[in-house]
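The following block was generated as part of the benchmark described in Methods. Ligand: adenosine-5'-diphosphate.
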Amino acid sequence: MIIFNSTEEIKKIEGTVVALGNFDGVHKGHQALIARTVQAAKAAGLKSAVFTFSNHPKNVQPGEKPVKNILYFDEKAEIIERLGVDYLFNIPFDERIRTMEALDFIDQILLEKFNMRQAYCGFNYKFGYKAQGTPEVLMREGIKKGFGIHVLEPFQIDGQLVSSTFIRSLIGEGKVDQCMKYMGRHYAIGGEVVVGNKIGRTIGFPTSNLIIDESMVTPPNGVYVTYCSYNGIRYPSITNVGVKPTIGDYKKNVETHIFNFNKELYGKNIRVEFLEKSRDERKFAGVEELSKQITSDCIMAKDYHRRTKYR
Ligand SMILES: Cc1cc2nc3c(=O)[nH]c(=O)nc-3n(C[C@H](O)[C@H](O)[C@H](O)COP(=O)(O)O)c2cc1C
Ligand SMILES: Nc1ncnc2c1ncn2[C@@H]1O[C@H](COP(=O)(O)OP(=O)(O)O)[C@@H](O)[C@H]1O
């Protein structure tokens, strides 16, 4: 997959079928849209492409509440690449694009830059200045200018509309056990292991700590059954998200205790997949009570892993 990070980088490319959207989370609705795009491109002998903005349009509109992302760009790109896409247009939502009228956007970006012959978008896709471009506008212009538009119906699972907003709310409420159903994968946080307070090993539960990025969607404080991947291997683990009130007053972080594991991971990259929330984080009277509770948390988590092996 070739990634273009600005419209200037796109010189002369082959004709494309483009999936239009923001694709944060690349959930099952997005996956269906992208699969149709890839299929159509193959059938027509064109290149398949996904178009997305590198910064969320809502985050540059004055007065709008900032939108937190589910995925970092490199994670999003990796998932999109696995769907068989040829080109990823990852374009900054700058002042020129923000103020571009819908019809200019079609002519100058979709047709001139992306060489778009067909497009797939959701029923609620909006584009152009003040979001005045709609699927109807695309269809009308498509007839005039000779490109095809396919508008997909709302994608639902068991009556629930699958959207990035819905998935953000699931994660934000700690309902991480439902993410697989709507995203086709577990909600995960990755990063480099940082040094903590070095208390974990003294109470029998060493943990690998990750810093939380508050510009991303984060799960609420609590204890979760997780997998932790390191060096290509996926280990059953248990994870605390929170501020460790029992031992002090810390910044929110993610710390995972990997079962049957005793390697030093400082500076290494790990990825924590969240399977289920088991309880809220609490302030205990002391480290001894905390340690007892963690022991029973681990028994419960190991049992969960045993029951749901390889999921
Ligand atoms: C499974 C698990 C559950 C935890 N639950 C709590 C909790 O409820 N309250 C709390 O204050 N700390 C909790 N912690 C965090 C511990 O306080 C922390 O792991 C320990 O103090 C070591 O911290 P360190 O890695 O910074 O050395 C939990 C940790 C784990 C691994
Ligand atoms: N079973 C394990 N699960 C998670 N991390 C582990 C485990 N065994 C060893 N480690 C490593 O031990 C260190 C954590 O020990 P700990 O005393 O909790 O210190 P910290 O406060 O820095 O997290 C980290 O480098 C971590 O990668």
